Amino acid sequence: MAVQPHRLLSTQLNALNFHLHEVAGSMQPADWLRRSVPGTNLPAFTLWHVPRTIDSTVNMGIRGVPELIESEPWAAKRWARPEGGTGYTVEEADRLAAEVVPAEVVEYADAVRSQVSQWLKTVTEEELDAPNTLKEHTAKAKAYYRPEVEEAIAPLAGQPVWLLVSLTCFAHGWAHLEEIKLLAAAGRK
Question: How many CA atoms lie within 13 A of 69 on its CB side?
Fold first, then answer.
């Protein structure tokens, strides 16, 4: 049986979303806004960053369509931002973390997973193999005019769409969720 790329990518996205639920459920209330290691982001910010990166990368970056965060009920949330947090100062990230309601972010992550999964059912192998247009789409989105964003996406620009989806919807998010777990454990000692 041949590998079906859209199914593999959907499986990665589903695994990440399951892990996000697992990590969020393991957190104690004090964990979310405790900086256990100097120089790291607060876990609440990092939890927010995971689905925001998926939404912004897939919808705005790859597809060139509005992000889910721009629609209700998400746009009305205090933590709604038109970008994914790349290049935030510690102070900006901390202010956002203070506004995060983890249960709402988990619901948002579920909605992003559902939307991206539906898109993956429609995408062809040729579209997945095509070079992404992340750089071109990002250049049209004012919220992403940050040197740090340009620097972060430079090595990804033009890579195959499947690679960008896999990195964003699995590897990047998984690493951040593991970071949250480690920081929470360190803060409880």
Answer: 24
Higher-confidence residue of 2 and 80: namely 80
Mean confidence (pLDDT) of the chain: 92
**Domain residue ranges of the chain, discontinuous segments joined by +:** 5-187
Which whole-number Å values give the CA distances from 177 to 47, 50, 51, 106, 136, in the listed order? 7, 8, 11, 12, 29
Rounded Cα distance between 87 and 76, Å, is 23
The more confident residue out of 44 and 154 is 44
Distance CA(168)–CA(179), nearest Å, equals 16
Q: What is the DSSP string of the chain?
A: ----HHHHHHHHHHHHHHHHHHHHHH--GGGTT---STTSPPHHHHHHHHHHHHHIIIIIIII-S--GGGSTTGGGSTT--SS--TT--HHHHHHHHHH--HHHHHHHHHHHHHHHHHHHHH--HHHHHSBP-HHHHHHT-GGG--HHHHHHHTTTTTSBHHHHHHIIIIIIHHHHHHHHHHHHHHHT-
31 is written with which tokens?
Answer: 């964990």
pLDDT for position 1 = 56
User: Positive or negative CA dihedral for 55, 176, 86, 93?
Assistant: positive
**Domain 5-187 falls under CATH 3.40.800.20:** no
